[in-house]
Amino acid sequence: MAAPMLRWGCRGRRWALACVDGGSCHRRGAPTGSTSNRIRGQSSVAQQPLHTAQKPRKGEHKWAAVVGLEIHAQISSNSKLFSGSQVRFSAPPNSLVSFFDASLPGTLPVLNRRCVEAAVMTGLALNCHINKKSLFDRKHYFYADLPAGYQITQHRLPIAVNGSLTYGISAGKECGQVIPKMVRVKQIQLEQDSGKSLHDDLRSQTLIDLNRAGVGLLEVVLEPDLSCGEEAATAVRELQLILQALGTSQANMAEGQLRVDANISVHHPGEPLGVRTEVKNLNSIRFLAKAIDYEIQRQISELENGGEILNETRSFHEKLGCTVSMRDKEAKQDYRFMPEPNLPPLLLYDATSLPTGADPQQVINIDQIRETLPELPSVTRERLVQQYGMLPEHSFTLLNEVGLLEFFQNVMKETRAEPKKVTSWVLNIFLGYLKQENLAVSESPVTPSALAELLDLLDSRTISSSAAKQVFEELWKREGKTPGQIVSEKQLELMQDRGALEQFCYSVMKDHPQVVMDVKKGNPRAINKLIGLVRKATLNRADPAVIKEILEKQLSS
Amino acid sequence: MLKGYVPPYNATVVQKLLDQGALLMGKTNLDEFAMGSGSTDGVFGPVKNPWSYSKQYREKRKQNPHSESGDSDWLITGGSSGGSAAAVSAFTCYAALGSDTGGSTRNPAAHCGLVGFKPSYGLVSRHGLIPLVNSMDVPGILTRYVDDAAIVLGVLAGHDPKDSTTVPINKPLVLSSLEDVSKLCIGIPKEYLVPELSSEIQCLWSRAADLFESEGAKVIEVSLPHTSYSIVCYHVLCTSEVASNMARFDGLQYGHRCDIDVSTEAMYAATRREGFNDVVRGRILSGNFFLLKENYENYFVKAQKVRRLIANDFVNAFNSGVDVLLTPTTLSEAVPYLEFIKEDNRTRSAQDDIFTQAVNMAGLPAVNIPIALSNQGLPIGLQFIGRAFCDQQLLTVAKWFEKQVQFPVIQLQELVDNCSAILENEKLASVSLKQ
Fold first, then answer.
1. Closest-CA residue of chain B to A139
2. Subunit contact B248:A144, Cβ cutoff 8 A
3. What ipTM goes with this model?
4. What is this structure's pTM?
């Protein structure tokens, strides 16, 4: 069955239970029909009391999914976590590799201050407790993209623990309500990224690029509080926005700056947790949701058919839309964790514990970082709702689309129109056009200034609403014309001459006495027909509201 | 494993010396990856102790009717920094750098009649020192005299941004002359008097203590109760770190790579099999065993706890008023190579490190000072151990002692004169190289 797509508005149902129940509902089919067939078939064999054969055991068919996420975010910094080589995307292979990154013997790690600050900022934004003392460890495994044979990470005592990530699930388009949900953050740790390996099966060789080896990562571990693909996708999206707002990571999944692994299991509520599988290689939010929902269904099917779930690693096959088992031989890896002896414990300070006369270059003050945190998305959304009176759901959409908030704010700066109008235009019409052509905000043919000008024309009643939409369509064609130019070219200005308009109304009424009769009889739709006729006569250059007003006046007289 | 590898950078300690105008005479031989106490397990072959050819030793051997003729009885230098010791001892250079993880600088210093100095952990940068045990390694200094060692230390000591385990020092190292030892307190750890200690060294140790006492110093017996556990503890921690540090040698980025290209795993396995000798491989396997999830608590963590106890032993001893500890450096003088190789590397290391490795576990400074020649005409040294970061004080005491004992200079004139003897030696050396 198709996995639920990531979309706002699921018809008012609580999505969490809906996704799972919906699935099992489909599989069961119509309950009464099938059981009665069964009973009929069985009656010759055994005397089975009707009610026991019919009634399913309590809770047997109700499944709950448990999803935990491990998110790796590349820290946005100039140099790597433990060495001075540069961090850059798409550089020529092996051009950003220092002696330490290549694991030349005798080289030692030196901690990057910016990475620590990024970790503290992220920890604070996620309401974590920042550990004033954290430790580094070595995690050993052999792989060609791990030059040292171990990764330096924080296994025993990470830099931040026990936080929370709040995200919002839409409760339906009409009410614009957003249900806040929360997933606990188990910990945030600093660790090294590995290099990249490209398998060339044709020449049976593997190409290794170490540019990425040693880049700082923030691993954010979420507790298994999520229960379906949509929740996971929304939570990850929110984390993305937070990281981008903080500037600690660009969190672009397509560029590999944000990677998510999901741990998924299913069980009957009330019973112990099931065996979990790990799904890796999820490089977009959409696939994340798809993969998780697929895996949940796969596990349910497997268990309902009497099979069992293996504790294994699976990867998501984008084209087929399914998860496939990966390297099950390596299921049980002993990483032989050992403290990293070349890095002393990381000590952080706050205002109370800061040693007097400490060189600010040498210490990190948590309180100082807390004070300089930029505005978080949840605060931004709240501010938008307060400032512009928009629905919470609108604030989510504005933030979710890359560049949309900035676009909106630029339009607001230049227009006199009401915020509600701007919101509506940006979210419905502008966004609609973008989605139709699958464009990003940055690729929009309509600039904020152009839209602002258009909205001003609308606001000043120079043009009608439908005319404005026409203008917008013209603007989208990228012919370089301004709204003003289009309006005059196509003669879309609203008629300002009331007298002329009254004349039009009068002549239309004269030409269509039957319709006038209908109106007088009390047919509510008839007046619309008249309005339509007047509009046609005026080549759509009259404001329908004004037409209606004039007609009503003329009819009553 | 590092065949053909030319490092593209200089270690901090090397660079500091070069910056001061030092001339690099050459790179010296050692036990492979600094694992060993004889400098016999290197790919270039074993290192010979110059004292094998000294007049002092040769004369004593002539007196012994049972001694074999020829060169087959040459002596080991000790290890693992034996090449450096041999170089300094044979007057090839002014000073040499070694490494000291369990005694690898002090041991060959004792066997070659040199000052072998191990600085406090954190005083000298390890950037560029191929790691054996990161938490215990330090670069070591080998010279003929204490003053020379102090000069070199003065150049090398100090915080290095490239090594996060170094600390800044507040004042430069200047060695003053100690005239009066009456305010000094020397500690003699009783657990270091072991039955395996040669009677000669025991006697010299005793005489050294008497010397201090006679000059007015206070000499007291102290106890380091956890000494007997240090060998086992050292082995667990050392092999664990080795297993980790050697993981990077896979032939992928640099060094030796085997011909197998069936799969990455096969290539790794073959490269590491070919590139490491038995000693190294043995330690890697042991270390990985100790680091397994099911063993970690019982071995690694336990060993760390015992290490803390050993370090505390020293702290307690120093807190009781002791300034410097005086102990033997080695169990005996240098032994002939043929005798040394009768036991395997692991056994030898366990035996020979006994006086030196606890110091590494505690991160303290220590120095070997040659005291006298043995009955066989071979050097014997004693070890002084100081408080952490009190290297200057330690060397000051060592210098006083050196002045008192007037250790003789090695006499190698005979070697220079007898060129034919050298040629004969070389033939035998190639036979004795292990394959």
1. B244
2. no
3. 0.89
4. 0.83
